[in-house]
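[job 0412] stage=fold_complex status=start
inputs:
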Amino acid sequence: MNDAIVDTAINTHRITILQAINAALADALADDERVFVLGEDVGDAEGGGIVGVTAGLSKRFGDDRVRSTPISEQAIIGASIGAAIAGWKPVAEIMLMNFVTVAMDMIVNHAAKLRYMSGGKTSVPMVIRTMTGAGASTGGQHADYLEGWFAHTAGLKVVAPSTPEDAYGLLRSAIDDPDPVIFIENLISYGNKGPAPVSGHRVPLGKARVAVEGKDITIIAYSAMADRALQAAKILSQAGISAEIIDLRTISPWDQETVFASVAKTGRALVVHEAVKPFGPGAEVAATLSSEFFGRLKAPVERIGAPFTPVPFAKSLEDAFIPSPARIANAAQKLVEQGKL
Amino acid sequence: MNDNYAVDGETRVEIYRRMALLKANDERSRKVIKTGRLMMPYYSYRGQECIPAALAVNLTDRDYLCTIYRGIHDMLAKGLPLKELWAEIAGRIDGSCKGKGGPMHLTSPDKGIMVTTGIVGSSMPIANGLALAAQLSGDGRVAVATFGDGASNIGAFHEALNMASVWKLPAIFLCQNNQYGEHTTYEKATSALRIADRAIAYNMPGVRVDGNDPLAVHAVTLEAIERARNGGGPTLIEAMTFRFHGHIYGDDDAYMDPARKKAAMEADPVPIYRASLIAGGFATEESLSRIETEIEAALDEAVEYALASPMPGEEELTTDVYAEGAAA
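[job 0412] stage=fold_complex status=done
writing structure:
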């Protein structure tokens, strides 16, 4: 992707999430000499990323600033940490989220903790972009949502956009941020289109977005599940139920203010994520809401997540694994009906 | 002591000063822990003093160091102020990391001491990043990763050396082969006859050196540093030495062969080098005694300073997690 394509795309006012991320990287590279991109196959000689997210960037900014790496996740993150504490702003790509397992020591023991362990003497301003999501028939080791691990690690921030505008604005904010940010991209929805971001626009980390306003129930979701929640809202509206959809956008730190305001209004909450349900981020949100709104809720806070299994291969099983709009709508409807009893 | 090295007298004495500091600091650490005035996990480096002392005289404060839990000698040699060290290992607010890091995570960026890791092998991938920063900046700095022989068996070693070589990073991988990975001998854990041989697999120079010969270490590290500064890429150095004590202070080191240990302690490199300086006419008994007395006085001062410093207040618990304070 070159300048002209990005600009044209923005001028047409609808671009894909993939184009938005590409534009955010290009703009960050252009704006700040300290920003550089590294990861497996990210250079144009290697295809500009396995699905083209970084296409055109190495041609424009050079192989030093958009550098393909060996298949060495520990070394990729280690190089990013070292460069970050020396004042650079690396944007590392871990091609698929499951591959973070190879680099967990670097991420959890080092990137997350160096600021604290040094008493604030070093900081690690780096971003780890990674893609994931079931739905592409990739089976058990290429599609997990592992955001809960990182949200459970003090020192990290975790971001997962669902629209082109948010993808652009959140990635710019993540790159600006003085702390390490895990930036999760959904593989299946890279081609989803939406209004084009305004160049340079930032979406602040830690701020949720009310995607649809409603009065009967609050549905809290992020990443691809935010889209599915929107589809569920349409089903619900046919049943006469008005659902408020909150796209969390940032999982850690999550925007309690926006979520609380919504639940105070609706009195019901459903948290949806593609990560497996037990011990998932939904549990944190649900527990917080149950505590905050005890006695004021019209129904118990409910959670939807994938079943406690690895991601399956067979299409029938994979479809059953991913929370569907119908499942979200059914759960929401039950909560609303329960509250009317 | 090989005396064909073109090292001036001043540098020779400076190497000794740092060795004497490291030895005295180790002895003081064990003594203060033993008296109960200090409680911390302590990984003695006694016996390995030559390596960082000889390395560090070839570096500037601007050069980067990533070291490990058994790394206080590396840091002191590179200039970590004694008071910062002692206040940190005592868990006090005046420590290098406000008492939040402790002995395994000392950090002093002003001296280029960027990361101390408690995870075996993890100094190397991060040193690559520091070297990459130097390469991108073109500022002529080098990054040194120190580690033990055990770390050459972990995946991070292989990923890091491969990447450093492919990118020709200004990095020096300095293995202090002290013959033990925690409790397990080199022979039992390491397939390579020499760790330096592993450099062949990464197409980089690999050098084994007598880590108890400071002038040999000085020469080898100087060559590697100059190669790195001049764009020649990374070097793997294996400095042969011996850890006089157990893995951690307080263990009974029953797993160490007493005969090997006795022989190593009898060949203590610090007094041997000291004697060679006097015999070679580079120093006198009086001049070296004066250095040692100064070190003891500085240690007295640092220990008292540290123990008089307050512990961090509870408000420090949740700061420095994120730049702007605790999240959420």
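[job 0412] summary: Chain B touches chain A through 47 residues (CB under 8 Å).
[job 0412] exit 0
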